[in-house]
Structures are given as C-alpha cells and as structure tokens.
Amino acid sequence: MISISKKDDKELGVGGKITVFTLLTIVVLGALAAFLAIVAFGFIGFFQIFEAEYDSFGSLFSYIVIAFIISIFLELFARALFNVMSLYISSKVKTFVVRLILDAGCTWFVLFLVDEWMTSVQIPALTELALALLLFLIEYLFDGNGKEKTE
So where does this one cross the membrane (predicted)? Predict the structure, then answer.
C-alpha cells in the first residue's frame, strides 16, 4: 500500500514538484489534443462523405470551435426546457420524441447558423440535418438512455 504523508510531500522538493506538474500538464494537453483530433477527423470524414465544402482545415476547425461554443449555451437551454417538459410527459416514446426534437433541433440550428455566418464553409441543408441527428444519437446512446434500467 502506498501512503503519502506531508513528510513525503516535503521530500519531493521543488524540482520534483515542477516535474510532476509538467508531466500532468503534458498528459492533460495530450488528452485534449487527442479528443480534438478525433472530433476534427470525424467532421472531416463526415463532410467528405456528404460532400460539404470548406476552404481550408483552419476554416473547418474554426467552424467546429464556433459551433461548439454556441451549442454550449443552446444545449443548456434545451436541457432545462426538456427537464421541465418531461415532468408532464408519462410515455417513454413521447419523452424520446421531445428530446429528439429539442436536442437535434438545437444542434441543427447551431450548425445552420454557423454555416450561414461562415462563408468559407458550405454545408448542404440535408447534411446539417443528418449531422444533427447523428450527434443526437451519439449523445443519447452515450448518456446511457438507450438501454433499459433493471432494478
């Protein structure tokens, strides 16, 4: 069993603390870079399949970042609205449909808004809708709502 006491912390010294901090920073930045790479390559692949056009990788990266920033605020609004609405819905199917409409609708609106604002990225409307539905499905399944809960 490893035990860490205040004495062990003082024995680490300034150089050891700097090394630990540096290594932790590298690990966190590496994980963040890996996540961003996966998202970027996912968008690039999706846009290649559905023939969306973008001028450069930088414009596509800007599109993704701006869409994520805007979607944070809209998703908070959609979640709050869904939580209020779900209090009055008893059917699981109706709850799913309401969540689909709210989440996919907000995601589509963000994609549409950023697409119209950025002239360097052109995405067909059907591609925006397909991407919004795909992102909703991924989020729904990763939230654990896609499987039945047993008690």
Answer: 21-49, 61-84, 96-114, 120-142
Nearest-angstrom CA–CA distance, 114 and 62: 10
Model pTM score? 0.72
Task: Compute and round to an integer the Cα radius of gyration of the chain.
Answer: 21
Q: Is the pLDDT of residue 150 over 70?
A: no
Within-domain flag for 65: yes
Asked whether residue 43 is domain-assigned, the answer is: no
Based on the structure, what is the number of domains in the chain?
1
Indicate the length of the chain as a whole number. Answer: 151
CA distance linking residue 70 with residue 125, whole number of Å: 19
- Cα–Cα dist 122/48, whole Å: 12
Residue 147 has pLDDT above 60, yes or no: no
CA dihedral 34, 26, 56, 61 (to 10 degrees): 70
The predicted-structure confidence for 24-34, as pLDDT tens digits, reads as follows 999 999 999 99
Number of H helices, E strands in the chain: 4, 2
